[in-house]
């Protein structure tokens, strides 16, 4: 088989971790566009996919509101809309890199994708319902459900009211210019740009405004940074995505011929924009600025590259770190926490030159 034959279509695929529930990584090393194709968008689930139809689908807004309402699908998609292109990254992305190792889905680098989402701004829906003065948080419940610690629960998360009212938080019905797929939240998915993916609740069915802190299991047990394995001291919630990067090419432990090669990859951050990426080829002794391709945009990853003349019969340790407009940068060692969230240490690979 000749891979250069124009009649042979070669394409990357998702990397499967589990099927029940389905958890699959995006082929991040081979993505080059601002939109990850839907079929290559990572999948992170706690429960089986719900089977839903738009024919009798309503989104309910209840709780500490003046006008509790249930709005049918066909009405919501006619409401004022907003389109947001955003990275969505699982908070457990790169968990497999933690040392010491932690339990949980052993994601490598591909629990991340970028897509374009269209939907009604969340604040618009909350204004229709009329928020009461006592409101503190907004809880979002999906249709996916199952047993967790002996109890049947739906996946549910909350946002502080201030965050929920930001204009870029939307209840989306389109992903990459088509109705959201059944595996990515159809018919409605909350999109919270800049926060880790657990906040962007899929298969959204109920929005509940509350006057107290929400304490569901995916709010106060999972998706919390626990820095101490034997107690809950200094625990803080997982929220904003950390500044991070990945080396797409070359691949780790790849063998290359001597000569000029391009090191390239992606960098992203939750708040602000990526402003600088630098590369080291001598194990952090010296750092050189990489080229950024395009204008850094909020919520979106940016492509970077660095060209280098590699010498024959040598091994190279390549490291990359990104900086953002808020002064955050990738540390040499990630903040260890026993559930394995938010890994963003300096990206690194090793290659051999023949």
From TrEMBL:
<dbReference type="GO" id="GO:0020037">
    <property type="term" value="F:heme binding"/>
</dbReference>
<dbReference type="InterPro" id="IPR036374">
    <property type="entry name" value="OxRdtase_Mopterin-bd_sf"/>
</dbReference>
<dbReference type="Pfam" id="PF00174">
    <property type="entry name" value="Oxidored_molyb"/>
</dbReference>
<dbReference type="GO" id="GO:0043546">
    <property type="term" value="F:molybdopterin cofactor binding"/>
</dbReference>
<dbReference type="GO" id="GO:0006790">
    <property type="term" value="P:sulfur compound metabolic process"/>
</dbReference>
<keyword id="KW-0560">Oxidoreductase</keyword>
<dbReference type="GO" id="GO:0030151">
    <property type="term" value="F:molybdenum ion binding"/>
</dbReference>
<keyword id="KW-0500">Molybdenum</keyword>
<keyword id="KW-0479">Metal-binding</keyword>
<dbReference type="InterPro" id="IPR005066">
    <property type="entry name" value="MoCF_OxRdtse_dimer"/>
</dbReference>
<feature type="domain" description="Oxidoreductase molybdopterin-binding">
    <location>
        <begin position="46"/>
        <end position="217"/>
    </location>
</feature>
<feature type="domain" description="Moybdenum cofactor oxidoreductase dimerisation">
    <location>
        <begin position="242"/>
        <end position="353"/>
    </location>
</feature>
<dbReference type="GO" id="GO:0008482">
    <property type="term" value="F:sulfite oxidase activity"/>
</dbReference>
<dbReference type="InterPro" id="IPR008335">
    <property type="entry name" value="Mopterin_OxRdtase_euk"/>
</dbReference>
<dbReference type="InterPro" id="IPR014756">
    <property type="entry name" value="Ig_E-set"/>
</dbReference>
<dbReference type="Pfam" id="PF03404">
    <property type="entry name" value="Mo-co_dimer"/>
</dbReference>
<protein>
    <submittedName>
        <fullName>Sulfite oxidase</fullName>
    </submittedName>
</protein>
<dbReference type="InterPro" id="IPR000572">
    <property type="entry name" value="OxRdtase_Mopterin-bd_dom"/>
</dbReference>
């Amino acid at each position: 088989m000749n891979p250069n034959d124009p009649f042979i279509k070669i394409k990357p695929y998702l990397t499967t971790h589990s099927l029940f529930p389905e958890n699959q990584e995006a082929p991040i090393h081979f993505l080059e566009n601002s939109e990850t194709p839907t079929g290559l968008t990572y999948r992170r689930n706690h429960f089986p996919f719900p089977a839903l139809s738009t024919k009798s689908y309503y989104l309910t807004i209840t709780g500490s509101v003046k006008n509790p309402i249930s709005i049918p699908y066909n009405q919501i998609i006619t409401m004022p809309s907003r389109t947001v292109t955003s990275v969505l990254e699982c908070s457990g992305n790169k968990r497999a890199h933690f040392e010491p190792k932690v339990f949980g889905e052993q994601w490598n680098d591909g629990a991340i994708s970028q897509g374009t989402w269209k939907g009604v701004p969340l604040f618009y829906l909350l204004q229709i319902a009329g928020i009461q003065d006592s409101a503190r948080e907004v809880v979002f419940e999906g249709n996916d459900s199952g047993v967790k610690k002996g109890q049947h629960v739906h996946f549910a998360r909350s946002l502080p009211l201030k965050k929920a009212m930001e204009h870029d938080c939307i209840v989306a019905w389109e992903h990459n210019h088509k109705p959201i797929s059944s595996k990515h939240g159809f018919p409605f998915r909350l999109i919270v740009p800049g926060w880790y993916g657990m906040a962007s609740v899929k298969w959204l069915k109920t929005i509940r405004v509350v006057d107290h802190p929400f304490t569901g299991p995916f709010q106060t047990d999972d998706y919390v940074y626990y820095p101490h394995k034997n107690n809950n001291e200094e625990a803080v919630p997982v929220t904003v995505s950390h500044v991070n990067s990945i080396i797409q090419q070359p691949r780790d432990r790849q063998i290359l011929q001597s000569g000029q090669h391009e090191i390239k990859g992606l960098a992203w951050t939750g708040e602000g924009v990526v402003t600088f990426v630098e590369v080291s080829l001598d194990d952090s002794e010296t750092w050189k600025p990489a080229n950024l391709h395009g204008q850094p945009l909020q919520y979106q990853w940016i492509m970077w590259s660095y060209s280098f003349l590699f010498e024959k019969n040598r091994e190279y340790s390549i490291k990359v770190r990104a900086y953002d407009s808020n002064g955050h940068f990738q540390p040499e060692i990630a903040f260890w926490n026993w559930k394995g969230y938010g890994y963003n240490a300096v990206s690194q690979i090793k290659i051999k030159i023949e």
